[in-house]
Amino acid sequence: MAAGRIPDAIPARPLEGRVALVTGASRGIGRAIALRLAAMGADVAVNYLSNEAAAREVVDGILASGRKAAAIKADVGSPEEVETMVARTVSDLGPLHILVNNAQIHKGRLVHKLALEDWDVVIRSGLYGMFHCCRAAVPRIVEEGWGRIINIVSVVGLIGWPGDTAYASAKAGGMGFTRSLAKELGSKGITVNAVAPGYIRTDMTAVISEKSRKAMEAGITLGRIGESDEVAAVVGFLASPEASYITGTVIPVDGGWAL
Asked: What is the spatial order of strands in the sheet that 250-253 belongs to?
């Protein structure tokens, strides 16, 4: 762009013609992301594990905005179910361009009290789920010559938290996964980034004890809990053409908690 030239106007729907798959999109941060991408013009596959009614509500909201949407049940911890989910996304909505890995089951206890099966559930839903989804989706996204992969990790993966060894491990692993995949796919026209929410108001954080809540809030520089829409806004930016020169990064959305 020539010096002093006013940039071209930003399109009202910068993701028009794109198809996105958002895992764990029936509630909380995933729901906000699905609705944000639809508002930006994308057609969206809304993945859910068990709450079909909530997923249908998200789909209805997207359809009401004039975009296409589909609710797709799948356990991201199952490679077979993920393959079916990605295939259904393409058959129902069209070629896939954007993958948001958001699904995560949370089980928290002190490490010596954490059941092995709970550790497995957390790692399988988060880290394995991210791998399964990328493994199934990447070849399809590469075919399109343009793509965005956005992994939802957590500030807990950066700073740790007592009682969250499994969750922190899954999220820290997701950060390394993001950076390595970015190096694999950069030459293919695909960016890969991660967003690390802090303490966000969701169903998952609603069950946090009063003691833990106060301890978390005390460490937040902005002095308040974050909202799902604030995370979705960053995801929307990373999915947009404006983020074309950003890849392999982890962006905290935490009000300064990790400082």
From this structure: 69-73, 43-48, 19-22, 98-101, 147-152, 190-197, 250-253
Cα–Cα distance, 201 to 81 (Å, whole number): 29
- Going by pLDDT thresholds of 50, 70 and 90, the confidence category of residue 3 is low
Q: How far is CA 188 from CA 19, 122, 133, 139, 183, in A?
A: 18, 31, 18, 10, 10
Q: Is the pLDDT of residue 2 over 60?
A: no
- Rounded CA separation 258/101 (Å): 22
Q: Which percentage of the chain shows pLDDT scores above 70?
A: 98
Helix/strand/coil percent split, the chain, to 5:
50, 15, 35
Quote the DSSP letter at residue 200: B
Of 128, 167, 199, 245, the catalytic one is 167
Three-state DSSP string of 90-131: HHHHCCCCEEEECCCCCCCCCHHHCCHHHHHHHHHHHHHHHH
Contacts of 120 (CB under 8 A, 6+ apart): none
- Percent of the chain with pLDDT strictly greater than 90: 83
Interior angle at CA 105, CA 234 and CA 75, nearest 5 = 95
What whole-number distance in Å separates Cα of residue 160 and Cα of residue 172?
9
Listed residue (195, 154, 168, 207) closest to 22, CA to CA: 195
pTM, rounded to two decimals:
0.93
167 is catalytic: yes
Task: Calculate the CA 185 to chain-centre distance.
Answer: 18
Residue range 201-250, pLDDT digits in tens: 887 776 777 887 787 788 899 999 999 999 999 999 999 999 999 999 99
In 3D space, the residue among 82, 71, 169, 155 whose CA is nearest the CA of residue 121 turns out to be: 169
